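Task: sequence in, structure out. Protein: Endonuclease/exonuclease/phosphatase domain-containing protein.
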Amino acid sequence: MPRTGQGVARAIRKGPYNGRQSLASRSASARDAVPAARAQVKHTKELLKLRVLSYNVAGFERSAQAPPGWNTADSKAHLAALIHAHQPDCVHLQEVPNGGAGFHVDQYRAVDATVVSHCEHIVTYIRMESEEALFGPFDRFVKLQLPEQAGSEFGFGLALQLNLEEPVFLVNVHLEPFKEGAITRHEQLSLMSSRLGHKAAVLIAGDTNTRKPELKSLSKAPLNVTPIKVPQGMPDAPSTWDSFSNRFRGEQTFPFRAAFSRFLSRSGSASAVNAIVSFAVVPSELARGILLFESPILSTKHGFHLSDHFGFLADISILQSM
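Result:
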């Protein structure tokens, strides 16, 4: 569903269609809602629109609440069906075992780069119908690593540059875990800014492991990383961890709610006229804001979840000040 203000940026690669909606028709119901979202930013134009899904899949482990017989293959099939149902242009997965080997989704491909985080791999998938309009004829990716990880397969994120005149990146992250990891998370995001360029616009979608008190310090210069703009009245970070309702690890799990996985963004200033590129969630036919995959999987009498995290999805408008 990538779109410029005048339509698709480029002709997309030809291939099997299998009844998918076109890029233009899929966003038709969302198009009328865009002006309201734009009204929050004066004198802007839309450079591109895309749909992003992010999910920490917890290694495709079996939920403690799953019925007998449920296995890894079932979890992979469920996620593949979810991806096909919502047709995201870009899929950010975290905690993927074996670098994504063994997990394939028709009409999607994995970016030819994976990063080993503190727990399993970070893998990004692109819808093949969207790839040329989004990224051009080849992937321009950056592995994000701490200095001591340089030259290895380890890191904390994978950034993909969009096919725009201004430097704009989509970043899939799995940042340092736990409350005491706040200093390392700040360092990781600082290194991201340095590596991608302080003038680049950045959309982060992944398991940031951030706690609410951290957001104030992250929003300050030079990082300037903030929650993404959402339609009025909608939460910018729904609870993507809820061990009250999701007993993935069993009944002994300490119950709490948090927004570890979320969208974060940083506006960019790059052109000679100091144009500002920013991001905003726009309403779509799927949701008024960020869509949270919090409903349990139903199988016979059992209700359980794919992961200890909830996945999330949104339609994102990339805006440029005039």
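Residues 3-41 have pLDDT under 50 and may be disordered.
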